[in-house]
Amino acid sequence: MIQKFVQQIKNTVQESLDGVHTCIPGEIVSFDADKCTAIVKPIGKIKRPDGQKVDYPQIAKVPLHFQQSSTQESCICFPVKPGDGCLLLFSEQALDAWRSGGEEFPDLKHDLTNAIAIMGVCRQPNELMQEAQNKDAIIIRQKDSRAMLSNDEVLLKRNDDQFMQMKGGEITLQNGGTVLTKKYFEEQLERIREIRISERNFYQKL
Fold first, then answer.
1. Mean local confidence (pLDDT), 135-159
2. At a CB cut-off of 8 Å and minimum separation 6, what does 77 contact?
3. Which candidate, 62, 75, 73, places its Cα nearest to that of 118?
């Protein structure tokens, strides 16, 4: 009798806990850039009351987190595509009132509909993390283009043939086979001086 009562209490507690969601990896299904919300598919299984495990349902209108200031005057934006990984966090309160600026918060704690997606959580590590760690730098990449900022170097790179590098008081520009450095410009100035001297000597002979 007592054991049955204890088991019922355990089952009741477990059922309540099954409805409390904290965080879970997710995958972008589609993205609405105008509203900055997405349909996201949580990765994993959810247990039904009958004990059967099924896939999580897709969650609609999930706000996405990007690095930006409160005024949105400073931000880092990047394209979001189906299949991108993210981390889903489930709010303690419903997000509807927060979105609309209202004051009525439905009593839905840690519900699946209260999800916020943080972009950048992926199954595989990004190889640029090791380079950023080694150089103690910030690296921004978009396919072949990249920008790297460290304490002693700034690099803007379009590809292997086009880049600008500022390092050790020197500025290097490269476009194809042409490499422009401080030495290059000094050599050009010296050539201009020699040409002007030659022109002066020529006119003096006339």
1. 89
2. 66
3. 62
